[in-house]
Amino acid sequence: MRRFPYETEMNKLIGILACMVVALALATACTHSGSGSQAPVDEAEEAFARGRYAKAQSVCDSIVLGTAFDNTDVWDLCRLSLLLVRLGENTGDNDVNTAFAARCLRAALERDSDSTYIYIQAMPNEDRARMMMLSAINEASHEAPVDDSDISDIK
């Protein structure tokens, strides 16, 4: 025997609300927040944009020297290469950053040269000039004399 005529409707409403609360809790538990979900190149670019050059440098170094470098996609390698050049310009550490940037560009070209050139062509002129400088460094390093006898031929 029912005590109240609306008891079954109330139970339905409580059940629906309980399901909604559980669904909401699951949805918020499955989402990521903060820099933990951010891709490393995104994190480095954001740090650079905020003027946190040491943080950006640290993230870039960990990508270039880390085990994930071999799995980094072409677009991220191009972005990383440009970011390293910019970091070198802002921090005064041009030599190491240029070498790392050239390594990133070389890896991007080896993986997919067409996509790399498309990325470079879509850049503003100033950034394109930076990337072309890196491309020239890569070409020169592959055409450099191998031993002393090659150097003596140049004289």
Could you characterize the architecture of this molecule?
By secondary structure, this protein is mostly helical. It is built from 7 helices and no strands. It has helices spanning 7-30, 40-49, 53-65, 74-91, 94-121, 125-142, 148-154. Helix 3 (53-65) crosses helix 4 and helix 4 crosses helix 5. The protein starts with 6 loop residues before the first helix and ends with a helix.
* Backbone shape: elongated
Query: How many strands, what sense, and barrel or not for the largest sheet?
Result: none
* Span of the ends, CA to CA: 109 Å
**How many extended strands?**
0
As a percent range, the share of strand residues is under 5%
| H and E string | HHHHHHH
Structural class: mainly alpha
Query: Count of helical segments?
Result: 7
Poorly predicted segments: 29-35
Mean pLDDT level = 79
Q: Over all CA atoms, what is the radius of gyration?
A: 27 Å
Helix content: over 70%
Question: What can be said about this structure in brief?
Answer:
With 155 residues, this protein is mostly helical. Helix content is 76%, strand content 0%.
List keywords for this structure.
single chain; 155 residues; mainly alpha; 7 helices; 76% helix; 0% strand; elongated
